[in-house]
Structures are given as structure tokens and as C-alpha cells.
Amino acid sequence: MAFVSISCPSCSATDGVVRNGKSTAGHQRYLCSHCRKTWQLQFTYTASQPGTHQKIIDMAMNGVGCRATARIMGVSLNTILRHLKNSGRSR
Fold it and tell me: Any idea where the InsA N-terminal zinc ribbon domain is (predicted)?
């Protein structure tokens, strides 16, 4: 069996890291006994991936509706509306 050393992203400790259940998506969660922070290694938030903002703007400019854009991209309608609202501001 292979051993993988997992370090805490907050305090960088490796000796106090224990498993702490699973997320709703089924990914393993970890707990640092030193700083009491929890995290998971395989966390992906679709709305914050590179290129998401530009894809939303491009779809809006090509006449795709907000709900259809949210459904196609796999993010919430509120995320689409927030990106469109903030598109006038400089990034």
C-alpha cells in the first residue's frame, strides 16, 4: 500500500492530519488537529475556473439566455447574473 503525506494548506503541518468524513460529492475530507481547519484535496468550483467569465460573456453576446447558459455551463443562475452584472467593471 502506498503512503501519501498530506499537509495542511493552512499551517503546513503533516503529522496532525486525519481523515474527517466525505463531502456531498463523495470526496474525502481532512482535518488538521493543529489548526482545526478542514479541507478536501479534490475540490472543484466550476464558476471559478479560468475562462468561465469569458465564456459567460461570449454566450450572452451570441444571444444565449441566462438560464440556458447556466444549464450548459453547470453553474447557478445567480453566478451567471453576477458575472453579467460585473462585466462592465474592470477585472
Answer: 1-36
Higher pLDDT, 75 or 25: 75
Measured distance CA(46)–CA(91) in Å, rounded: 18
Residue 20 half-sphere exposure toward CB, CA atoms < 13 A: 14
Q: Provide the angle, in degrees to the nearest 10, between the axes of the packed helices 52-61 and 66-73.
A: 140
3-state secondary structure of 9: coil
Q: And the C-alpha cell for 75?
A: 453553474
pTM: 0.55
pLDDT at residue 81 tops 90: yes
What is the chain's alpha carbon radius of gyration, rounded to the nearest angstrom? 19
DSSP 8-state secondary structure symbol assigned to residue 28: E
